[in-house]
Write a structure and sequence with these properties.
Layout (H helix, E strand, L loop, with lengths): L3 E2 L13 H11 L7 H9 L6 H9 L4 E9 H18 L2 H8 L17 E8 L2 E8 L5 H8 L7 H4 L8 H17 L6 E5 L9 H13 L3 E5 L4 E4 L2 E4 L2 E2 L2 E4 L12 H8 L4 E3 L2 H8 L2 H6 L2 H6 L4 H10 L3 E3 L5 H6 L4 E5 L9 E2 L5 H10 L7 E5 L4 E5 L5 E2 L3 E12 L2 E10 L12 E8 L3 H4 L1
Helix pairs in contact: 2-3, 4-14
C-alpha cells in the first residue's frame, strides 16, 4: 500500500462555531498524537520512579492507552452531566425505588447510609447528541484516566486550546471515599481499605488496583488488594490477614454478594461492620439494565411522578429500551437489526450482541434466557457509535484507521468527576485494538457566534 501524508491539523478558523460540529471535524481530520509517554510513565510510577511499572504495563497491556485524543463538544458534555444529575435525582424517589427493586435481589432492599463510589455512565455520540448506553456501578478506569489526562501534550496551537483540565481529579476521588466513610461512620477514623476483586492479579485492570493502593496509602490509610476469599468475619469485624478492614472498595462483578467467597463481605456489609462501596443497592438502583426500560418509558415515568424536567432529559438522551420476552420472539427476530441485545445483569459487554450480527441459534438462546428473571435480556434501540480517525505516527503512515468510540462519565452523587473515551473496533469495547484503548477527552468550547 502506498504511504499517504497526514492532513494538516485544522486551524481554529476552519472550525464551526458549533462545538459539536467542530469536535466531529477534529475527530475526522486531526492527526495529532497527544500522549506523552514519558509524562505518563512519571504519573504511573510516581515522580522519581524507575519506569518499571509503566514498562510492564505496556508489555502486558499494549492497547490499554491510545496515543490519540478524542474531541467532544462542551454541549455534549453538558448534556451528559444533565443526564447524570437527572438519574441521580430520580433514583432517590421512593416510587422509582419501589419499581426497580421489584426485580432486584433481596439484598438490594438493605439501604446503607452511603451512596456508592464510581458510577460510570457510558454514552455514544449520536447525530442529535449523546445517547446513554448503560450505567455501571463498579466502573473501572477512573484513576488510570486521571493519570492519562495529565500526560497529554499539544502538537499545535489548535490542540493547545482544548487540552484537558487535570487539576483536582485524584483529590476528588479521595474525597469521594472519605465521604462514603463519613456518611456511614461519622467521625470515626478510616484506617484500612481493601480493594477487592476476584483473583485481582489476573484482572485486566489490575494495574489500577495498585494505583489505588498507593493513592490511599499516600493519604495516610493502610490499603491492600485482595480476593474475596481472603477475608473472614468474626466478632463483628471484617478481617484480612489478621488486620481489621474498615472499608471495602468493591470491584466484584458478584453484584449481590451471592457467591460463597463473598459471604464474609456480605455479612460485614449487612451488619454495618464494614463500609462496602459500591454496594448491591447501588447496582439495583442504577446499573440493572431493566431500569433503562423504565427510564425510556415516558408514560411509566409520569405514573411515578418523575419531574417533567427529568422526563425531558431522559427522552432526549436514553434510547428506547425494552424487555425481551418469548411471546414476541418472532417480532424481535424480524426487527432485530434495529436493536442491541444485552443481559439485564451483564457487565463488560459480555453476551451482548448487535441485532444485525445475531445468528438464529444465539437469538434462541436469548429468548430462552428471558424465561428466568436472573438471565433476562433487554434490547436497546441501536445507536451506532461515532468514530475517531487514528493515525499511526506523526509523519507518514500506511493509511488511517477509523475507530469507534464511546464516552464514559465517572460520577458520584449526581456530579461528573471525569469524562474519558474508549477507542475500539468490533461490536464492543475490548482493549484489543491497535491504536485503541482509553483516550483523553479534549472539550471543545462553543464560540460566541453560536450563542448569537
Amino acid at each position: 500500500m502506498t504511504a499517504s501524508i497526514q492532513p494538516p491539523v485544522p486551524s481554529l478558523a476552519d472550525l464551526s462555531p458549533d462545538c459539536r460540529e467542530a469536535a466531529a471535524h477534529l475527530n475526522r481530520e486531526c492527526p495529532c498524537l497527544a500522549l506523552d509517554h514519558a509524562a505518563l510513565a512519571a504519573q504511573l510510577d510516581g515522580e522519581g520512579g524507575n519506569g518499571d511499572f509503566y514498562r510492564e504495563l505496556r508489555q502486558s497491556r499494549p492497547h490499554l492507552f491510545s496515543d490519540t485524543m478524542v474531541f467532544v463538544g462542551e454541549r455534549h458534555l453538558a448534556a451528559m452531566a444533565e443526564l447524570v444529575a437527572a438519574v441521580d435525582e430520580v433514583a432517590r424517589l421512593p416510587a422509582y425505588q419501589q419499581a426497580v427493586l421489584a426485580w432486584a435481589p433481596e439484598i438490594a432492599r438493605f439501604a446503607p447510609p452511603h451512596a456508592g463510589v464510581f458510577l460510570g455512565y457510558d454514552f455514544h455520540l449520536g447525530d442529535e447528541g449523546p445517547r446513554l448506553i448503560e450505567i455501571n456501578t463498579n466502573a473501572g478506569g477512573g484513576l488510570l484516566n486521571a493519570k492519562l489526562a495529565r500526560a497529554q501534550r499539544s502538537c499545535c496551537s489548535t490542540v493547545q486550546e482544548f487540552l484537558p483540565a487535570t487539576g483536582g481529579v485524584e483529590e476528588a476521588f479521595l474525597a469521594m471515599f472519605r465521604q462514603e466513610w463519613t456518611l456511614a461512620k461519622g467521625d470515626a477514623p478510616l484506617k484500612r481499605i481493601a480493594i477487592v476483586d476476584t483473583a485481582p492479579a489476573a484482572q485486566y485492570l489490575a494495574p489500577e488496583f495498585e494505583l489505588f493502593r498507593r493513592l490511599f496509602e499516600a493519604a495516610g490509610m493502610a490499603a491492600v488488594v485482595a480476593d474475596p476469599g481472603e477475608f473472614t468475619y468474626r466478632d463483628g469485624v471484617l478481617w484480612h490477614d489478621g488486620q481489621a478492614v474498615d472499608l471495602v472498595y468493591n470491584r466484584l462483578t458478584d453484584f449481590a454478594l451471592e457467591e460463597a467467597a463473598s459471604a464474609p463481605l456480605r455479612q460485614a456489609y449487612l451488619e454495618g461492620a464494614a463500609v462496602v462501596t459500591p454496594h448491591p443497592r447501588a447496582h439495583a438502583l442504577f446499573a440493572d439494565k431493566r431500569n433503562l426500560v423504565l427510564l425510556s418509558d415516558p408514560a411509566r415515568l409520569a405514573e411515578l411522578d418523575v419531574p417533567e424536567a427529568c422526563r425531558r432529559t431522559f427522552a432526549a438522551t436514553i434510547p428506547t429500551t425494552r424487555l425481551v420476552t418469548a411471546d414476541q420472539a418472532e417480532q424481535w427476530w424480524q426487527q432485530r437489526k434495529q436493536w442491541f441485545f444485552k443481559p439485564a445483569a451483564g457487565f463488560g459487554s459480555r453476551a451482548a450482541y448487535r441485532g444485525d450480527k445475531l445468528t438464529k441459534r444465539v437469538f434462541e438462546d436469548i429468548i430462552a434466557a428471558g424465561q428466568s428473571e436472573n438471565t433476562a435480556y433487554v434490547a436497546q434501540a441501536l445507536v451506532p457509535p461515532s468514530e475517531r480517525r487514528v493515525f499511526s505516527d506523526n509523519a507518514v503512515q500506511e493509511g488511517p484507521n477509523h475507530l469507534k468510540l464511546d464516552i464514559r462519565a465517572y460520577a458520584y452523587q449526581g456530579e461528573v468527576q471525569l469524562a474519558a473515551a474508549r477507542l475500539y473496533q468490533g461490536q464492543t469495547t475490548n482493549f484489543r485494538t491497535a491504536g485503541g484503548g482509553f483516550a483523553a477527552v479534549f472539550a471543545v468550547p462553543c464560540r460566541e457566534e453560536e450563542a448569537a
